[in-house]
Specification:
globular; Aspartate Aminotransferase, domain 2; 7-stranded mixed beta sheet; single chain; 11 strands; binds pyridoxal-5'-phosphate; two-stranded antiparallel ribbon; 2 domains; alpha/beta; 14 helices
Length: about 400
């Protein structure tokens, strides 16, 4: 028994454990490093790309964005990428460009970030939730037909944590009922399933380059599609519906422009693209580093019976965007508090969103409406994971979790 443990043991025996325990815990945790949830790996290459943009005349959407769009589409093996300011914007514009709006319903999942559902409302349509698969947390293709109405126009699945949905089954349901598919691929740049990737079976896939995403420009997003007309329409929609841009003005000089359609202001700029371009060269390497850390977590946590490990299905290449574990719902928030006390930044992705205040007011879907999503939402914890995370931090986290369950069993 080491000194800290024997001291605590003595403290309990002496009857002063309650008063001294918190201080001792602080001392104990002070010897462990603070563990961040995420840290970006942008550095010299991004600074150089940024400097190149600053030396040129165009800070807004221009050739740097075009280069990123080409690289990103090529990485996914698709025809088009349209650079945008967020995934939320990409979801919104995909629906709008597909002609989906007021009076229409879009089937989606309650086990997601709110942006999936709010984008549907931003397009003027109504989100309709269905439950998720027990083993993946992804939309359950088997329950979609129960949610169909005469107004259903599209399905918006989410490749949760980086594991792709069963797009073959989703595509079959969509085809049988004439529905569009807009994929929320915010977690899934690198994820593949049985050889296919995002935007291959859906009409479009939408990506996030938010501050904690696997590729990041602080804020940013993209829509990817094989559909020429859809890409063209999203290009118009991203910039007020204007048919000329600052880049075209720079190249060709001023020419009168028109506004064929109503649009928004969601265009990715050259500064964001400059941050993203060098990361495209490291995307597979970054994935390999996350895969190694995820494997380390699995090994380090395997002996803790109270922890349910995330499942990756056969035939899936998981993007390992988030590493989530499951614990008993009645212990989840206590464990979060314990990790916080140990200066470990854990999170919850996600509490089922139909239970959030706004959706409760709007749809009044009681607890029990989507039992699987609710169970995941009540029991999940996301552990720190990012490519340059020191492997030792995985063990700091695992020790903290092991201690939590050992202490409560004692
Ligand atoms: C599943 C999911 N969808 C959508 C979004 C929204 O992305 P953005 O912040 O780029 O709009 C996020 C971002 O956290 C997300 O995790």
């Amino acid at each position: 028994m080491d000194e800290a443990h024997s001291d605590r043991h003595l403290g309990r025996q002496a009857g002063n454990a309650l008063s001294s325990l918190p201080d001792m815990r602080r001392e104990e945790s002070a010897s462990e490093p603070e563990v961040s949830f995420f840290s970006h790996d942008l550095g010299a290459a991004e600074l150089a790309a940024l400097a190149q943009v600053l030396r040129g005349p165009i800070l807004t959407t221009g050739e740097t964005v075009e280069r990123f769009e080409q690289l990103f589409a090529a990485y996914l093996g698709r025809r088009h990428c349209v650079g945008l300011t967020s995934c939320t914007g990409a979801l919104h514009l995909s629906l709008t460009a597909l002609g989906i709006g007021p009076g229409d319903e879009v089937i989606t999942t309650p086990m997601t970030f709110i942006a999936t559902a709010t984008a549907i409302e931003q397009a003027g349509a109504t989100p309709v939730f269905v439950d998720v698969e027990d083993h993946t947390g992804n939309m359950d293709p088997g329950v979609i037909e129960e949610a169909l109405t005469a107004r259903t126009r599209a399905i918006m699945p989410v490749h949760l944590y980086g594991q792709m949905c069963d797009m073959h089954r989703l595509r079959d349901v969509a085809a049988a009922h004439g529905l569009k598919i807009v994929e929320d691929a915010a977690h899934c740049v690198e994820g593949r399933r049985e050889g296919y990737g995002p935007a291959q079976h859906g009409d479009s896939a939408c990506f996030s380059f938010y501050a904690t995403k696997s590729l990041t420009s602080g804020e940013g997003g993209a829509m990817v599609t094989d559909d020429d007309a859809l890409a063209q329409r999203v290009r118009l929609l991203r910039q007020h519906g204007m048919n000329k841009t600052a880049a075209s003005r720079h190249k060709e000089g001023y020419a009168h422009w028109d506004m064929p359609i109503f649009g928004w202001k969601y265009n990715m700029d050259n500064v964001q693209a400059a941050l993203l371009l060098p990361q495209m060269e490291r995307v597979e390497q970054k994935l390999a580093m996350r895969q190694a850390l995820a494997a380390e977590y699995r090994a380090a946590l395997s002996g803790i019976s109270q922890v349910a490990m995330p499942q990756t299905l056969p035939g899936v290449r998981h993007a390992e965007h988030l590493f989530t574990i499951g614990v008993a719902p009645e212990r989840r928030d206590e464990l979060l508090g314990h990790l916080k006390e140990r200066r470990i930044a854990a999170m919850v992705n996600y509490r089922a969103i139909h239970l959030l205040e706004y959706y409760q007011r709007k749809f009044r879907l009681p607890r029990g409406s989507f039992p699987v999503a609710e169970r995941i939402g009540d029991s999940t914890i996301s552990l720190p994971l990012y490519p340059s995370m020191p492997v030792e931090h995985v063990h700091v986290v695992a020790r903290a979790i092991a201690d939590f369950f050992a202490e409560s069993a004692a």
